[in-house]
Amino acid sequence: MTRSDDVPPPDAATAHAWTALGGDPALLERVTYRAVSGGLHARLPVAELARATVGVCSLAAAELGARRSGGAVPAVRVDEGAVATAFISERHLRIDGRKPTNFAPLSGFWRAADGWVRTHANYPHHRARLLTALGLPAHSGPDDLAAALAERPARAIQETVYAAGGLAVAVAEPGESEIPLGGLPLIETRRVGDAAPRRLGEAPRPANGDLPAGGTWPVSAGPASARPASGGLPTSEASPASGGLTTSGALPATGALPARGALPVNDGLPANDGLPASATLPASDMLPASGVRVLDLTRVIAGPVASRTLALLGADVLRIDSPRLPEDPDAHADTGFGKRSAALDLAAPEDRRTFEALLADADVVVTGYRPGALDRYGLGADALLERRPGLIVAQLCAWGWSGSWAGRRGFDSLVQAATGIAATEADADGHPGVLPAQALDHGTGYLLAAAVLRALTERHDTGGGHHLRLSLAGTASWLTHGIAPATPVGGPAHDPALWLAETASGLGALRHARSPIATPDDSPDGSLGDSPDGPLDWARPPGRLGADAPRWL
Fold first, then answer.
1. What's the CA gap between 291 and 273, in Å, rounded?
2. Distance between CA atoms of 287 and 313, rounded to whole angstroms?
3. Is residue 274 classed exposed, middle or buried when 0-12, 13-18 and 19+ CB atoms within 10 A define those classes?
4. What are the backbone dihedrals phi and psi of residue 465, each rounded to the nearest 5 degrees, phi first?
5. Is the peptide bond preceding residue 326 cis, with omega within 30 degrees of 0?
6. Which residue among 83, 309, 328, 545 is least crowded, i.e. fewest CB within 10 A of its CB?
7. Lowest-pLDDT range of 386-395, 495-504, 533-542
8. Which residues are within 8 A (CB) of 251 and not within 5 positions of it... i.e. 6 or more apart?
9. In 175-287, at which residue ranges do the beta strands (DSSP E only) sit?
10. pTM greater than the 0.70 cutoff
């Protein structure tokens, strides 16, 4: 039975996303939602997108867990309060009480001679290229940038900065985007080869008996207010389209990663080794993705959210970064839960051999770079699948996988501006607005994780390799053209505190958002009970970027 504050399944956005993932429509009745009021308010249906992406990811996890246990797919219920909290996880993050900076001073909206532009200058090299493109000295500040941009047309700024390797886009009016939104799929999937079905093994049983009916996995005891704080503290690049795909439906960087041989110790964790004793959870062996090995070649938010979710569900996720490419450690503090992080220079022969050894035992490779950027390393999807039959290659980019914009750098904020979202959310005075969350990043991240989980299920059943492609622009198209606002359903006021936790780590004491992924309902009478299903906990906190050994556990 359902409660009055549940959204009756299947809601349209969830059904659309699940169909795009190739899921069995009969399973949609297994997903329900617990409504809250005031979570992700916007003119566009952001709340509907957010809950649908988490809903299908939760269902895909339940499906894989059931397949491995031999049971029926259990019901899952997603709490919209958990979703709203997780979709702004980077804003909730505190590191020893410090609030990270999400956007640098030269990142934002600026008046142009004939409209508005949006810049992204969070990384030092992007800041330098922006200023160079505009003929400004390196010490220039916001006032200098504003004066230079006000004199130029928006599209001229966009193309001048792009030509210099920087990031700026003209703010497009709805329906006037240069991006062909109507032709962008939400998800592209392709089965590759005839590799035999690869079973991950029957999900191990707990020592005290069989799994509960429905093949459920362990959960915590509800929202954060009802349980002790964790740790006891008081406190965009891949190969171009190759055919055969099925289409469906930031922070200031602080320097490069450490070089190999000079890795810092992850305080509180065994340096460059496995899990600390405190993070060894016997129950993790029962998680849906237990035993899955994931090579994570993603950065910033969307890709890391996907791999963070796979780690939550039991996967051994190893993030690989170049020691020569700067990344913000604060971003990793938000998205690095459950993972390990190693630094490898793929242009160095020794590091390349290490990477190939990791690839030989990987189940999944997730990339988050522009189309074609990894091809020179032999890491395009076709090359990977040829070397590793049965591999799942999941790729993410900003602007879509074909067309004149496909090769451009991009971030959520820029995609919002270029696709008409910023204009739709504009203030009364015409100043461009933003979504209440970096919803393209987070939503695409959960869809990417869901696509990997469904591919694992399909590989378990029928074998083959799988090639998956998503983009921020594809998610933007879905938001602006494919989701109808749902009928409001009454619920309690959204309280983020219910979905925050505090965890000790080598980076300091972290206050962070808990995962919104719903765990199966195993109440004896099939009811949903008086509180939402509790979220899972990650097996380990984030450590320092690049500080783990490049090896599988």
1. 18
2. 5
3. middle
4. -90, 170
5. no
6. 328
7. 533-542
8. 90, 100, 101, 102, 103, 104, 122, 328, 330, 331
9. 187-192, 246-248
10. yes
